Amino acid sequence: MAITWTDIKRATKKDIFIVSSGLLYCLLLIGILLDFVQYTITEETKSSTQTFTAFVLAAHVVSFYLALLGFVYTTQAGQTNIITKIAIFLIAGNILIFLVRVGIEIGYVNYREEFYRNFADSGK
What is the pLDDT of residues 72-101, one digit of tens each? Predict the structure, then answer.
């Protein structure tokens, strides 16, 4: 079954919010699994999400708010169907993976590669 342009034009705000939150949720979950494997099994942090931690944390916030907006729009429309349950799952899942992310960042803080430049070394 192919998605046509008319299907995309008929999508409502709640559908767009929930699908966007679900996609971000999946990407963040893959990122957490990748970091966990990098820290525990390979013990090499070159291909982990350390280099863009601020972006990952911002993506957690955006995904949570998209799920929250999808839930609000769904309940305001008076619909209590599977979409509402998916929105609730995404809200709880986003909170859970954010807490797991914080736990991984705190638990494996020794694996972080931090480089600081001395003022005497700058420019040379």
Answer: 888 887 767 888 888 899 999 999 999 998
CA distances from 64 to 41, 88, 112, 113 (A): 29, 10, 26, 28
78 φ/ψ angles, rounded to the nearest 5 degrees: 80, 15
47-66 in b/e form (b: 16+ CB < 10 A) is: ebbbeeeeebbebbeebbeb
Q: Where are the alpha helices (DSSP H) in 53-118?
A: 53-76, 82-107
Helices 13-37 and 82-107 sit at what angle, rounded to 10 degrees?
Answer: 30
CA distance linking residue 67 with residue 65, whole number of Å:
5
- pTM, whole model, 2 decimals? 0.77
Q: Are the beta carbons of 49 and 34 closer than 8 angstroms? A: yes
Give, for 115, the enclosing helix (H) or strand (E).
none
Nearest alpha-carbon partner for 73 in 2, 10, 13: 13
